[in-house]
Each structure stands twice: as C-alpha cells, then as structure tokens.
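Feature request disguised as a bug report, sorry. It would help if multi-protein outputs had a clear separator. Right now it looks like this:
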Amino acid sequence: MTDWLQAFPNLVILAMDQMSLYFQATLTRVWSPIGQTPVVRMTPQRDHVHFYGALELRLGREIAVTAPEETTEVTADFVRLLLLLFPTQPILLLLDRAPWHHGQALDEVLAENPRLQLVYFPPACPDLNPQEHVWEQTRDKVSHNHGYTQFPMLVDAFDTYLNETPFATDFMQQYAPTILCEF
C-alpha cells in the first residue's frame, strides 16, 4: 500500500452509487407529544428522479447529479464528469456490481483514461459502500416524512443537501489497506 500511495500521492478515491428519489414520502419513526399523532402528507404521484453520487473518501465531499435513468451510458457520462472534476489526478473508483456498471460505454471511458481504475465491491455487500450511507443520511434529513408540495422542491433540497454537506466516513481507515494492496 505504501508504495502505491507514494507513486500516486494525489490519488482520488471515490465510492460511487445510484439511487431513486420518489415524491411519495418514505416513513420513519418520529417524536411527537403524547396523544398527538404525527401527520405525514402522502401523494399518489409516482414522480421520481435518479441520482448518481460519488463520495470522495479522503475529504468527505459528495458529488451528486440527477439523471433520467440508470444505464451504462449514463454511468459513463457520470464517470466522465468525475474525470473533468479531477483533471490530472489518478482516480480509484469503487462501485457495486450493478448491471449498468458494465458495458461498452464504460469500457470506452476506461480505455480512454488510463488514470482511472475501477474496483468492484463484493456481491451483496451494500453496507461496504460509503455512498449507500450518504443516501441514507440524506433521506433521513430531507425526504423521510417530508412535507414538500412540489416534487422539484424536494429534488432541489435533496441535491443541495448532498452537494453542500460533508460526509464523514471511516472507510479509509478500515478498508484502504486491503483495497490498495490489490494493485
């Protein structure tokens, strides 16, 4: 690990994932005064949007954008965005084994960018991905039991929270030696 970090001292390590945000409020426990039942407005609308996100593991900075769908082409476009945001640094991108994380469009991005390396999390281990915890924290703060009356307002609040909140993770201390030893 030390050799690899010495060879690439400006290495950017990102954990990436996607999620869908629906206008229907997700419910969670809340405190309320005794005898007063909390009221959560539910909408029959099934409006939704997808978010692509990548957590910079060293700094806790989130990079998130909305997307119309989850496909290999959209994933490749998001990876290109990450490459633009880190124009000279080598990037180690950690991601799960979703079907849209494989395919020709992503293979082309990898072939064009030798400074980009992908590492896939083991199957059926979502808790290993720090980005999953970002989604969970953002849902807790923004979309659980929400009272937004317009879907764009919810999307804006979700996007703002993601892109303006630092997210602490101990992933580097726990797993970086194992991951970096693979190289």
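(second protein starts here, but nothing in the output says so)
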Amino acid sequence: MAVIVKGIEETEANDSKTARVSLLITAVSPTTAAGARSQLTSGGYTLGASYSGGISAGAKLSNLTYAPVEDSGGSTWTATAAYTDDAQSETAADFTKIESSTRVEAVDIWRTGASGAFLNYPQTPALFDNIGGTSVDSAGVPVSGLVVQQELSYTVRMNFTNSDQATVNSMIGTRNSALFLGANPGFALFTGVRRSRIAVDLYEVTYTFVWDAAAHLRQVPKRQADGDAELSGGHAVEVYARQPFPGVSNFSGLPGI
C-alpha cells in the first residue's frame, strides 16, 4: 500500500471555483501506480469526493494525477488533486452560446430562376416535378451555381452526457419540422453534436446545423437509359429537385434546447 505523509501545497484560484492540493506519498507495497492510487482513493481522493478545504463545501474532486519521484525506485510519489466548485460555476440554465458563419456552396445546376413552389415544406418526396426556369446547361452538362449556406452551432451546459443519446442520434441528418433559430421549417439540417467534460458531472454540449437557401434540394435532370440527360433543343428536357434529406424532426426535443 501507499501512505500519504503530508500535503505539501494547497492553492486556491482567484475565481474561488477551483483548488489544487499537492501530496507527497511513500509507497510500501506494491511500489506501483496501482498501489499509490489504491491508497489515494481509500483516503478519500476519488472523483466526486468533497473538498475539505476552504473554497466551498460544494467543491468536488474533478481530476487526480500522480507520478513516481525520479530516482526513488518507485517508493515515493507525488499526486495532485484538482477540485472544482460546480455550485459557483455556470449551469445549463446560465449558459447558452449560439454561433454562425455564412458561406456559399458550389453545386451543379441545369436551370436558373426555377419555381419556388418546390421549396415548400415538408418536402418529404425524394423527387419533385419539373422545376421550370431558364436552361443554363450545355447539352445536358451542368454548370456551377452558388447556394448560400449558414453553419450554426448551439452550445449548452448540462449535467449528463449519454442519457439522451438515442434521441440525438434519431435526429441527426434530419431537417427542422418547426421554426428553429430563425430558420423556416425544412431549411436547417442537424449535422452532429460535440461533448466536452468541463467539470464533475458538467458537460458542454454543442449541436451543429447547416441552413441552406435551397432547403438542401439539388437539381437533377431527366435521364435516358444510358444515364445521360435527355435533351431537347440542346438542353436537358426536364430538371427535377431532389431532396437528399427527407426526414424531419422537432429540434426543440434535443436535450438542453
């Protein structure tokens, strides 16, 4: 086992939310990290344990690191216990961050000035009728057009990570069924989630979305059996709008939103 011989340093952060306790321990048997950790945890240094110092009764052990002292032959170890006062830290109710960036995406187009009717929600069919507009393709070969897109991120803080993972997974890759962050139904696509542990039982969760000016619809021409566009007068005879993301979800059901 290992015996804690003394606390050699104790510091408190200026914001009174964190504290670090440095310890010097001597190993009896076994002279390994397992032995050192066994004594540390049995002595109360376990994740989530309360802090007995002065910063707050609500402070909990958030991190524990330890290493052998050089040239000690494994008989002496140092350890640092870091405590965080979640009671004084921001909670999910206190913290929300929304960020956005706008760019243009180059896509293949066969028509400009297409009818806006195909943008109407819910756009659940995978393929829509001929969109009309003015032909700009060359013998069925598309040109590049620009679609405005906005990348959105919505960050919250929560006291859990995985309890609603199934709900989150079921919504990834779907579009919004209701107005969301200013996006009309069908225009915002849920692309993923990031989680970061920032304190004991406190996580920062960031949801990411992409708003698309064409509601994520893309143009495809009517094709012949050989795969080439069917032509009339040197242009694709008909062009359709295809929706690659037909599923929709109510994003207000995401945890923390």
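Even a blank line would do. Unrelated, but nice: The radius of gyration is 29 Å.
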